[in-house]
Amino acid sequence: DEEQGQGQGQGQGPKERARPRRRQRPSPRRMRTRGAEEAPQPKAKAKAKGLGIKAQVMKDFDTDRNIDEVVDEARNSVSEIEASIVVAESEEKKLSKEVEEAKKALQQTSARVDEATNKETVALEKLKAAHAARAQAAEATQQAREQRTETAKTLKILELEVQGRAKLVELEEAKKAAQEASEAAKKAMEDAKLKEKEMAQAMKDAFKVQGVQASLAIKDAADEDAKGKEEAKEKKASDKQAEKAVIAELGELEKARLARERERQQRLREAAGMKGRGRGRGFGQAAPKRLMDASPEMEATPSKAAKVREDID
User: Where is the composition biased (Basic residues) (predicted)?
Assistant: First the structure.
């Protein structure tokens, strides 16, 4: 295009020569929007709101539902949550692979100067979208783990409730047998009363043991929850450190690209100066003017790099 413009400009003034058309680059906002639309958006399950775990369990037992059905439902919920965790981790690995592919694509775009500008911009946007999608996948994984902890806590309380109810049924049957024996044999009235007192004490002890076991189960679940939060905090700090490293790497790539562009402009200026000295005064002044017209694009490049870094932050 530049040689064709030079041929048309011979014999004409600097103002009458045709200027080469500039390529329109896609705006970063449009590329960011396109990348966000193409990136998969993992869906995070909403946390259950309302009653507490123990209150919800007791509410389920107040209904006419079978206790085995409630336990099976809780176990199925745990299985579904574990399956969702596996899917989320697989999605996170897939997104990590896309990040690596985006880095390779970014390195390969420096082969040709004119095409490298557009390709590097697209690669940067894809890299940002991949990082954002991976962060969302990690957040969905963490939410699934928290949901699994809550469900495991509910299942433990259900199991303790089943055991307590079984013991309660046995004690009720023993109490009923003692009452029937007292009615059938008046002579053994004192023995029946003593046995009834023993059954009442056994029931009291059973309820006390059940309360202790439930407290221990809740404490263990709380410790496991605190451990999960600590692991999530450490993982968040690690992800933040990795993000800072990526930002630094993008800055280095942008600096390298600007250096290459300045070097190319310097070569064009030198070449234009040599051609101007060989072909006459009018033609020698036109080439630097084209370089001056092209300079705003180059000056705008650092601001675009800064905008890319702000978007990543």
Answer: 18-33
The three-state secondary structure class of 236 is helix
* Burial tier of 267 (Cβ tally within 10 Å: 0-12, 13-18, 19+): exposed
C-beta pairs of 133-136 under 8 Å, 24+ apart in sequence: 133/39, 133/40, 133/41, 133/42, 133/95, 133/98, 134/92, 134/95, 134/96, 134/99, 135/239, 136/41, 136/42, 136/44
Task: Report the distance separating Cα 276 and Cα 279, nearest Å.
Answer: 6
Closest CA to 127 of 312, 304, 313: 312
- Asked if residue 188 lies in contact with residue 182, where contact means CB atoms within 8 angstroms, the answer is yes
Residue with tokens 């897939």: 94
Q: What are phi and psi of 151, to 5 degrees?
A: -70, -40
Per the CB < 8 A criterion, the answer to whether 123 and 106 are in contact is: yes
Which residues, at least 6 apart from 260, have a Cβ–Cβ distance to it below 8 Å?
110, 113
Token pair, residue 154, equals 């509910």
* pLDDT tens for each residue of 207-264: 788 777 777 777 777 777 777 778 888 888 888 888 888 888 888 999 999 999 999 9
Are the CB atoms for 206 and 167 separated by under 8 Å? yes
Residues 6+ apart with CB under 8 A from 158: 57, 67, 70, 71, 74
